[in-house]
Amino acid sequence: MRIKKELETSRIPSPTGKRRWPVSTIDGILSNEKYAGDSVFGRTMVAEYPGMKRVGNNPEEVKRSENHHPPIIDRETFDRVQEMKKSRTNIEVDEHGNKVRKSTHYSMKRIEDKEESPTEKV
Questions:
Q1: For the segment 5-64, what is each residue's pLDDT rounded down to a tens digit?
Q2: HSE of 58, CA atoms in CB hemisphere, 13 A
Q3: Distances from the Cα of 116 to the Cαs of 87, 91, 111, in angstroms?
Q4: Virtual torsion, Cα 25, 26, 27, 31, nearest 10 deg
Q5: Burial letters for 3-27: b for 16+ Cβ neighbours within 10 Å, e otherwise?
Q6: Most CB atoms within 10 A, among 10, 53, 60, 87?
């Protein structure tokens, strides 16, 4: 990931103060709506007490406050990043709402190789 390499080469410490940047940390920053000036409340809730396990909340119950505070990045750039991330993901949602991984690009390569392979001589 180019962002990771640039941060580490520039010796910018991660939020935890470490030299290495986890890809998940960068992904979280790129996905966080607060940098575009919005606040989102209630994405998760405590499932059962006393376990304190958090689960995703019903999307209809999530509260959004747009233009809640001054943005660090403009909305157009933020939305463009979200589209780029969406086009590059290997996660799909099936008809039941479950997240599943797409086939790898290697499986597509095998199909292309078969189509391009020369025909056998008889």
A1: 999 999 999 999 999 999 999 998 999 999 999 998 888 888 777 777 888 888 788 888
A2: 2
A3: 26, 28, 9
A4: 100
A5: eeeebeeeeeeeeeeeeebeeebee
A6: 53
Which phi and psi (to 5°) does residue 28 adopt?
-60, -40
Token duo for residue 27:
């992904």
For every residue of 85-100, DSSP letters joined together read: HHHH--EEE-TTS-EE
- Give the end-to-end CA distance of the chain in Å, rounded to a whole number: 48
pLDDT one-digit tens code per residue, 79-99: 999 999 888 888 888 887 788
Task: Name the phi and psi angles at 113, rounded to 5.
Answer: -60, -40
Q: Report DSSP state, residue 72.
A: S
Residues 71, 36 contacting (CB under 8 angstroms): yes
pLDDT for 51-72, tens place per residue? 778 888 887 888 888 989 999 9
